[in-house]
């Protein structure tokens, strides 16, 4: 949402002016649009903290104790789903960047089941009887179902 809003602000001067005028209002002034957009995401962890503190102060024999536990479990589940969705989104963005870097290959990087686990640079020493030794810096991508090694710069 934040990226879309920033794009709208850049492409449409009238939208940008509307946003700027709205934030001249003293009730909104200390905040930014981005701060308002992230509030719903920040609320879930706050509810979890609030319910945890209520639970600590509520005796186990109190009628609200069990509903508090149920509410806390539901909030934890929602927070977990939000975090999983965020991780999947970040993973998809990283895989799209990899696919764009590897345009010259026929290898299909983005597949519905594929997840990027890790990636890093790797320096490989290449020794040939006919040539002097050289180091090739490669980039290695570890997926849940594949390993991709891209050729890099050569150093003698």
Q: What does this protein structure show overall?
A:
- The model has no long low-confidence stretch (mean pLDDT 80).
- By secondary structure, the chain is α+β, with helices and mostly antiparallel strands.
- Strands 1, 2, 3 and 4 form a four-stranded antiparallel β-sheet that branches.
- Helices cover 53% and strands 17% of the residues.
- Helix 1 (2-11) crosses helix 2 and helix 3 (33-57) packs antiparallel against helix 4 (65-101).
Set down the secondary structure blueprint:
Elements: H1 2-11, H2 13-22, H3 33-57, H4 65-101, E1 116-126, E2 134-143, E3 147-150, E4 154-155
Antiparallel strand pairs: 1-2, 2-3, 2-4
Helix pairs in contact: 1-2, 3-4
Quick summary:
It contains four helices and four strands; from the N terminus they run ααααββββ. It is of the alpha+beta class and 156 residues long.
The overall pLDDT average reads 80
Query: By helix and strand content, what is the structural category?
Result: alpha+beta
Helix content: 40-55%
Distance between the termini: 47 Å
Strand content: 15-25%
- Element order: H for helix, E for strand: HHHHEEEE
Radius of gyration: 25 Å
The backbone outline, from C-alpha atoms, is: flat
Task: Give keywords.
156 residues, alpha+beta, 4-stranded antiparallel β-sheet
